[in-house]
Amino acid sequence: MAHTATTMTNPSRISRRFADLRRAGEMGLVAYLTAGDPSLDATEQFVLALAKAGADVIELGVPFSDPVADGPVIQRASERALCSGTTLAGVLSLVKSLRAKTDVPLVLFSYYNPVLQMGLEKFGDAAKAAGADGVLITDLTPEEGVEYRAAMSSRGLDTIFLAAPTSTDERVALIAKSSSGFLYLISRTGVTGAKDQLAEELPSLARRVRRVTELPIAIGFGISQPGHVAALGGLADAAVVGSALVEEIERAATLEAAAEALATRVKLLKDAAVAGMSRREPHA
User: Fold this and answer.
1) Is-contact 236 223, C-beta < 8 A?
2) Which of 81, 133, 199, 253 has the lowest tally of Cβ within 10 angstroms?
């Protein structure tokens, strides 16, 4: 029998978005940006452009001084964001501003240290009040996250955990049971960053995860091209794209050019997501 996370009284914005996608026969697109790169005002402009272009869920990375799970592109973005003075409190203020302008689901993507420094209860209250929908802590395991999960779920915030190619079936089941909203499946070992090809073992990995959960599965790490996204159509409920979008910001000469490049990239990726759904396999 598949494991499912504890159901909240009212479906979260994330759960509703995935339910809408399933009814429409569409694969979702989850877009990641480092908040505060190059400024929080710029990030707001970028998020609105991504939402308008078709991103279904947006992850806002909280910059951290030691981003061990991230490749060079996101490391540089974190450095730029920290240099601009971005803090967790600032990112929460950004979420509040965005929530007044868009209904796109927003996930706070953070290392545990900034959240722990703020305090779980205070962070949970602030995230809920700002209008965030979920939280993903990259370096927190389900075993160590019991108190965190209780604090988030009691406030109606989804807790998203990462499953990896190295996760055993037993561990994937635990990760799924600890997650809500969706499960984030890492496509390969290593750090974040765009790659030319997807891992050969990804289809079997995705099927293995599908057998133990009914949660939507979002696949990320190394997803950067429309061909990658289309190839996920038979495997995932959503593709997660991060480094490729952050790189568009890094390359652009102006904020307006960055917003336009982000929107163009997301439209191409979303079109590929829709096209790829013809390959979809039935849920286990």
Assistant:
1) no
2) 253
Catalytic one of 26, 56, 70, 158 = 70
In the chain, which ranges are E strands? 28-34, 57-61, 106-110, 134-137, 158-160, 162-163, 183-186, 217-220, 238-241
Topology, domain 13-279: TIM Barrel (3.20.20)
Q: Encode pLDDT of 145-185 as tens digits.
A: 999 999 999 999 999 999 999 999 999 999 999 999 999 99
DSSP line for 136-156:
EETT--TTT-HHHHHHHHTTT
What's the distance, Cα to Cα, between the start and end of the chain in Å? Answer: 10
Based on the residue annotation, tell me whether 70 is a catalytic residue of this protein. Answer: yes
Catalytic residue at 56?
Answer: no
Do the Cβ atoms of 27 and 274 come closer than 8 Å? yes
Sign of CA dihedral 171, 72, 251, 90: positive
Indicate the length of the chain as a whole number.
284
Residue 80 φ then ψ, to 5°: -60, -40
The tens digit of pLDDT for each residue in 94-128 reads 999 999 999 999 999 999 999 999 999 999 999 99
